Amino acid sequence: MKNIIASFILCFCIFITAVHTQTNQSSNLPVNASIASRNSSVYGVFAGRTPCQEFLKEFNLGENAACTKRKMGVTLYHDSVTHKPTTYETWGMGKWTGHGKWHIIQGTAADPKTIVFQLDLDANTFLYLLKGDENVLFILDKSKNFLIGNADHSYTLNRQGNKIPWDQRLYLENKGSSE
Predict the structure, then answer these.
(1) Cα torsion 102, 44, 67, 50: sign
(2) What is the pTM of this model?
(3) Is the pLDDT of residue 25 over 90?
(4) Alpha-carbon separation of residue 165 from 91, 99, 143 (angstroms)
(5) Per-residue pLDDT averaged across 130-143, rounded?
(6) Do 118 and 102 meet the contact criterion of CB atoms below 8 Å apart?
C-alpha cells in the first residue's frame, strides 16, 4: 500500500512539474509567435543570395562598399485551415528583418494573371515576390518588375522546405526572448 501511495505522489509531482514548466515556457513566447503557432502553419521557407549593392539601393538600406552579396530569406505562414496568408518572418534584410503580414495579389505590368506575394515591410514599403512555381520566388522591384542579378547572384529565393531551419529557429527564439 505504501508503494502505491508513493507511486501516486511521485506521478502527481511529475505532472505538476510538467504543467508548471510548460506554462512558464509558453508565457515567455512573444505574442506574435504564440498566435502564429496556434493558428498558422508554415507555407514555406525560402532563401537565396542576392547582389548586395543593388539590393541596398532598392530597399533604402544605406551604403556598404564591402558588401558583394546578401544572404536572405523569408518564412511564410498561412492559416492551417483556410490556407490564407497570415504572417512572415524575414532574415538578412537589414532594417527590414523581422515579421509582418503578407498577402497574395495578382498581376504585374508584364503579366496581369501572375501570382505575387506582397510582404508589408511597413505601412508604405512592400516586398514583392513573384511565385515562379511552388519552389521558386523572384524578388521584384517597387514597380513589380524583375530585378536583374549579375554573374554570381540572382534575385531568386528557393524553397528550403516547409520546416524552419535550425539556425533560423534559434534566431527567432533568441530574438523573442531579448525583446
Answers:
(1) negative
(2) 0.69
(3) no
(4) 12, 16, 31
(5) 95
(6) yes
